[in-house]
Each structure stands twice: as C-alpha cells, then as structure tokens.
Amino acid sequence: MASVRHAEFVLERGDDVWVWDRDGRRYLDATASLWYANVGHGRREIAEAAVAQLERLEAYSTFGDFANEPALELAATLADLAPMPARVFLVSGGGDAIDTAAKLARQYWSQVGEPDRTILISRTAGYHGTHGYGTALAGIPANREGFGPQVDTIQVPHDSIEAMHVEMERADPSRIAAVFVEPVIGAGGVYPPMPGYLEGLSELCRQTGVLLVVDAVICGFGRLGTWFGIERWQADPAMIVFAKGVTSGYLPLGGVIVCERVAEPFWTTPGGPVLRHGPTYSGHPTCCAAALANLALLGRERLVERGRDLEGALLDALAPLREHDAVAEVRGGTGMMAAVELRSDVLDTQAGAIAKVTGAAREAGVIVRPLGRAVAVSPPLTATPEHFQLIAQALDHALDSLSASLSGTR
Ligand SMILES: Cc1ncc(COP(=O)(O)O)c(C=O)c1O
Predict the structure, then answer these.
(1) 44-300: which CATH architecture?
(2) How much is the pTM?
(3) Per-residue pLDDT reduced to its tens digit, 163-178
(4) Is the CB of 127 under 6 A from ligand 1?
(5) What φ, ψ does residue 153 adopt, rounded to 5°?
(6) Which of 3, 93, 218, 293 is deepest in the core (most CB within 10 A)?
(7) Could you tell me if the CB of 229 is within 6 A of ligand 1?
(8) Domain 11-30+310-409 grouped into CATH 3.90.1150.10
C-alpha cells in the first residue's frame, strides 16, 4: 500500500484484450485482470443483461423461500454443466465460496455422525483466497502468517501423492474433513499437476472418505478448456468451488457445486438440518443475470474450448524465453495460463527483480502479473497467437532490461 500511494496505475476503459489508462495509453491485458476476464473486456451483451435486470429487480435476498429467476436459472445451468449430479450454492466471490465449501464439509461430517472430521488439507503453493478458511488453507506461507491462531489445516507438498498419503495417515483419515486442490495451481506460480496426481488424489479420497474439494476459481469457465477445469482428469470431486470466469468479472459472483451426497442432509427432509450459512448477496439477481449472459457468450463463441486449443500456442510463444540468462523455467501447457520464473541468483542479487520485469513489460505495453519468483500470463480466452507473440516480445524486452541493470550493478 505504501509503495503505490502516490503512483497508482489508473485504468479507464477496456475492449476485448486491451485496456487504456487515463492518459490514453493502450495495454495488452495479458492477465485477464486477476485471471478472470475470460470473454475479454467491454462486452455489451453482459452490460445490457445487467442493466435489464437492474431495471426489473436490482437485488433481493434468497434467504428462506425467497428466490429470483436469474438465480434459479444460473443454478440450474451450472448444475447441468457440472461433471457430477449436483446442487449449487451461490455467493459473492471465490473467498466466500471457499469458506462455504470448508464449512459445508465440516457440517456435513457433523450431520452424518463423524464430527471428529474437522481437519482440512491444502497444498504448498496453493491459493484459496483471503477469507478465514482460505487464509488457513494458504499454501503460500506469507499469506497465512501474522494473523494469529487459525482453524486446523495441514499443508502437503503440491507435487507428491505419496506425501499426501503419508500426511493423511499421520493425521488419521477419520479426522480429515476435506482436501482442497487447484487443478493447475495459479497464484502460487502456475504449476500444472504431475501426471497421475489428480487421479491418485481422487482415489485416495475415495478410499479414506475425505471430501475432494476442487478449487476451480481460476481453472473454470474455459481457462483449462472445460467448464470446471477438473473434467480433464479422471477425478471425482465432492465439491467444485468457482468464481472469476463465471461472470468474467463483470459483476462479483462465486459459488460451490455440491455433489448430491454432501447436499443430501440439508436438502432432502423438510425440518431437517439447516446449513446456517448465507451471505447477504447470495443469489444476487443482477450478478446472476451477468453470469448467464457471460456463460451464453462462452458457449456461443466456443471460448471454453479455446483454453485448451491454444494452450500449446501460448507455451510455444513463451518457450524461447527459457534461453534468456535471467530465466530458470517457463511453465504452462495446461490451459491458457503460463509463468516465467527467474533464476534464484537473479532473484537473490537483484532486489525487486520481478517488479522490474512487470514494470518494463508494462512500459512496453503489456500487463503481466508478479507472482513471487515468476511472472504470470493468462490472457482473455479471445486472445490469439498474434497476441501471444506481443506478450513474448514485451517479456523478452523486459528481461533484457533486467539483465542490463544487473550488469550495471555488478
Ligand atoms: C484458486 C483461487 N481460489 C480462491 C480465490 C479467491 O477468490 P476471491 O479473490 O474472489 O475471493 C482465488 C483468487 O484469486 C483463487 O485464485
């Protein structure tokens, strides 16, 4: 906060993959803002759907028996798209949805007579938002530290199914409620899963009864080329958490796809257990109307499939950066997301190296995202291979200026 106080980068307008600052300079949005502008910026259809709903019924609670048409239609649409028979719980964003899934997992076990199942497992480098449970689940230590005592969680190395198995046994599976997993880790550095990892984890969950919660907040709605990302692997989620691409960010919305088994205690018997959990804007009709218009666009323009069709082209465009002195690794190839990680000695000797790269790329007209040791690229799904070349050129230029400043300091 202190560093940007007098240096805000103020954006004013957007159109498809482009955004403009208040001085009229144009930038390629190579991050789809925070991984969410899947259909690109400035889509009139979504604005019109939101305005029409604002004029009809801007907002109304969905507590008790209250409902509204856009919320009902969105829940039905998402349940149809889900990879398992499911109910849908709507909230305002990804962090809300993670907290919902975590509380639902623990309450589910309590309702079915296993109240000791309270522990939640997450993976190193994982990111699950900034709410209470999401903070406790953080696999990036800095995001968890300094907030005092939190709920019981265990962090397991993200790339080893064996480590997951060992940790589950050590903690005792009958005390574990759920494991949270991003199909491709996003904010923690863009790590596609090791071959067989997600299938192995799903099988481990089946054997131990632990609920598999897939965090598809980044990976959903086309980012990995399917509606929820996880369909690419043989896995059987108990819940799928979504947000971001469900509206492409035009209005805030998130939610949880809940398999029938987990929904059942709260759903089947009138007078049965009530899940005492519900944020004010759950099922907000205007946000749901924007989501429906966004889903229609994703489907009509075949943007969901593009996340997979173009994953190779994005990685190919960035791969030559591996030859650069300052680069340790270029990761990607699973969905339209990638990361360029800098070498440890560069990160150690050059304070703020990542910020220098993102700053120089922005100077060259391309917005990329700093992620600790790497810069991330995740353009709107409307981006083309020509845009990928522009991104690669800007990064190449930014890495050159980093190297030039490095040799200046030697
Ligand atoms: C994988 C993942 N889960 C959860 C969240 C939290 O979502 P929100 O920022 O909408 O609360 C994010 C946000 O970036 C995310 O990337």
Answers:
(1) 3-Layer(aba) Sandwich (3.40)
(2) 0.97
(3) 999 999 999 999 999 9
(4) yes
(5) -135, 160
(6) 218
(7) no
(8) yes
